[in-house]
Each structure stands twice: as C-alpha cells, then as structure tokens.
Amino acid sequence: MSFPYSSLPDWSKIKADIIFIPAIGADPRLTWARQTGTERTERLDYEIFDHLGGEARVHLYDHLIEKERKLQIPRQTSEATSEALSDDQHDALIAFRETGRRLDDFGVEDWANRLYEFLFSFQQISARPVLSDRSYQTNRPIIFICHSTGGNVLKHALTKRSEGVPNPIALNTIGITFFGVPHHGSSVLSNDEYVQTVQAHLGLKWKMSGRLRQDFRLRDENQELERLNHRFAVDIVGVKIFNYVEMADTNLRVLTDENSGESTTIIRLCVVDSRSGKLGTPQVPMEDEDFMQLDVTHTDLPRFTDQQDQYDSFVSEIGKLVREFKESDRVEYRLLQKAINTEVKVHVHQFYEDKGSIKILMTQPTLNRFLEVGPSRAIMDEIEGRDKNIRSPRYVFPSK
C-alpha cells in the first residue's frame, strides 16, 4: 500500500488532506481519469487540487504495495507454454501467481488493516513539526473519496477500535465521498459467474478471490455488512457524506452453458444498484448523507462521464468543505460522539442456554462496548463478571 501520487505541499497553505481510494486491486491512476471533449485526459484529483489552489494536499492510495503493483505476466505467456519462457520471464510468472495466491486469503478486513496501518503511519509523519512557522497544522482534517469496494475497506478502517480508544483516523475525518460502494452487498461482486468481467471492468490486477467475494454477499445473507454500517454510523457523527450511485447498466460478459461453456453472452446489470448503494436505511439513518443517482455505469461513476455539471458541482462542494471547516465544529462533534458511545445503553436479551428455556438473560452495555464486542460477548461478560461497571445479569421470566 502506498501513495503513488501526492501533490507537492506548500505547508503554509495546507488546510486538509484529500485521499482517493479505488476499488481493491484497481490502479488508482486510472480510476479517476476521463477523456474530455478536447481528447485531453482529465483526473479528478488534479482538478480538485487546482480548484483549491494548494489549500489541500491530494493523494492517490493504492491497496497494493509497490512490489505487488509492479508484477506483470510476461506477454508471451498467452501464446506459449511456461517451458518456452526465458528464465526471467518464468520467474516473473511464478512471482505473479504466488502473490495472487497469497492475496486470495485477504478479506475486506485484511485490506482494511493495510489501509489503517498506512494512514496511521502517514498521520504520525504529517504531525511532525517540519517548520518553525506556526501556520503548520498538525492532525489536519481528512477527506476520503472512494470507489466501489474501496469504500467498504475505508469503513472497516474507520471503525477499528482498540480497548475503547477513539480511532485517530476517524476523529480527523470531516468528509467522505462514496462512488458506487456496495454498502449492502452486490450480487455482481459476489457471484462466481461475474469474476472475469468484474476484473476487466474495474481493471483489477488479480481476480476477486472467493474469500473476498464472500464479504460482498447481499445483506440478507451477510449480517456483517449491517453490523459494519451500525458501527460506521456511530463513529462518523458529523462527517459530511456525498454518496453517488449508478443508474446505467454495465455490459457484463459471462460464460453460458452452450457449447460446453465456451460461449459467452452479455448480461446488463448495475454492479451496485441504488438499494445497495444508499448508505442510510430506516434502521440506520444517515442525516449527513447527500444521495445522488447518475445515469452512468459503475466505472464511469467516479469519472462523471458526460456529467459535466455534476462534476463541477462536486469539485466545488469539496472546495467548500475544505475552506469552511472550523475546528470548533469538530470538537463539538467529538464531544457528541463520546456521549453517544458512553452514555447510550443497549438492551441485550438472550435465552439462557437454549431457546427452549423460559429464562432470558438481560444486560445493558454501553453502545461503545456493544459495538466493540457484539451481543453474545456482552452477555458472556456479564456471566463471567468481567465487566465491573455493569450489574450482573438478571433472569427475566416472560409473562404467559
């Protein structure tokens, strides 16, 4: 993981860091690039940097470390067997395949660990006083801009907890933009038949592994997505959210059963539909979410293809967010977040031993404790007497 591109800083002017996060495995330099009417390539990160006139430092994040990104399959591989390759080509092919197999074991949580560790280190470096001028600001506000599965990675990273200690990255986050993020899962991203076409559309270096696809199953069969959204809603109180969702179908080329599975057909679907792309739900409302639907495909969404007015509006909104930010607002939201985490109690009920029992265990952990350990662990803490701040569990006999 790295920043393959960071804008050159003028420390006296910088007010915020803006970090672009692509889909897992995608090349960040291509995710935000689009062709304009003048046949010129335009990148969203460049446009935002220029619009702010250096008031924000802009970074592209790559989920892959530099060594992984540089690995390539030898060109002759598709036309020749491995025996026909030179020694260097053979070694390159082996390295590519072995790295792919190692990354096959990564789920969203593993990619989030990479992101969190990198951001934490980056934040520590950025906080060092490199100038005697007091205009240098430590712990600058952060704005994240994410595409597709990269948004899920960010949500996991921002909700990481360590013995109740606030997440330092989340505390400094003032804005997040999601482009086509599967907040509630995606059949296209999780089902086997779409693996190759998803890799082609997103420009992934390796195919999404079975382990990773499991994390994007639809929420009806994937409760972890909803638990993540609950934690996220609490940990980003006061953070401005822009959420863009695709309306145009993507042409997905998949294998058919005809001709022994060697024929292909085109299926037209949204990779992430509006139901999954909208973060807030009646159960977990997001008051600061601006939800917008664009008539573009999944890969064209972060490029605002043929959506110039929306493009200009978004760049302007990010500029406004940077320039109008007040530290006093962040302090107020931190106090509110602390109060929510420590003062709000969650009622947890569980049958004693089995559902056939007439006894029900009940406990009331703080919201912070509940989100950190989950309902079963909260009950066990009560049984084992490990949480001294909460009363012992009570047995409740339901009325007949």
From TrEMBL:
The keyword Mitochondrion applies. Keywords: Endoplasmic reticulum, Membrane, Mitochondrion. It is found in: Endoplasmic reticulum; Membrane; Mitochondrion. Its main location: endoplasmic reticulum. InterPro entries: AB_hydrolase_fold, SERAC1. Gene3D superfamilies: alpha/beta hydrolase. PANTHER family: PROTEIN SERAC1. This is DUF676 domain-containing protein. The lineage of its organism: Eukaryota, Fungi, Dikarya, Ascomycota, Pezizomycotina.
